[in-house]
Amino acid sequence: MSFFSRVREDLAVARLRDPAARSKVEVLLGYSGLHALWMHHLTHAMWQREGLRLPARLLSQLTRFATGVEIHPGAVIGRRVFIDHGMGVVIGETARVGNDVLIYHGVTLGGIGPIAGPRHPSIGDNVLLGAGAKLLGPITIGEGSAVGANAVVLIDAPPHSLVVGVPATVRPRTPSA
User: Fold this and answer.
1) Signal peptide position in this chain (predicted)?
2) Looking at residue 2, what DSSP letter applies?
3) How confident is residue 176, by pLDDT bands cut at 50, 70 and 90?
């Protein structure tokens, strides 16, 4: 997919997901979550090339400074992901985010210590991550799930789950949830 095709797709997703988005120009110029994702695509490509990891990391830190969204260049992010009001979002190095994921402000996809291998969450397709949610460790959130605002998630959730509380508990997600 070309860069411009991806930009058009992301603009359409932002307008679909955010009822406050009035125009493509407004989204293009004023949505820091999209700016962070676009820069992540660049830094991730750099991260995968020999000798470019340090520049990728430094550029990701400049992006964090400019947008308030920190995405490690090693993280794998799917298509049509939308970060709404992105300030304070942190996505760790081994995190994996599926397609069509909606992430609100203050979400952390973080690690729990210096363990070998994947140490950050894997998020399935069509997942909603509520404001302030903290997902920690090498856990998996199944497709179609929703994580409630300020939940602290330390366990896996099967597909179509509702994950809420501190510490979070998992229950089936009904169509209205």
Assistant:
1) none
2) -
3) low
Distance of CA 3 to the CA centre of its chain: 19
Asked if 163 and 151 touch (Cβ cutoff 8 Å), the reply is: yes
Strand partners, 154: none
Q: Which of 146, 150, 143, 148 is nearest to 123 (CA)?
A: 143
Q: What is the pTM of this model?
A: 0.92
Q: What angle do CA 27, 39, 86 make, to 5 degrees?
A: 55
State the Cα–Cα distance between residues 57 and 52, nearest whole angstrom: 9
CB 127 within 8 A of CB 98: yes
- The whole-angstrom separation of Cα 47 and Cα 49 is 6
73 SS3 class: coil
The answer to whether the CB of 48 falls within 8 A of the CB of 55 is no
Mean pLDDT computed over 128-142: 97
Write down all domains in the chain, each with its CATH number in brackets. 3-172 (2.160.10.10)
Q: Which residue has the tokens 């820069």?
A: 39
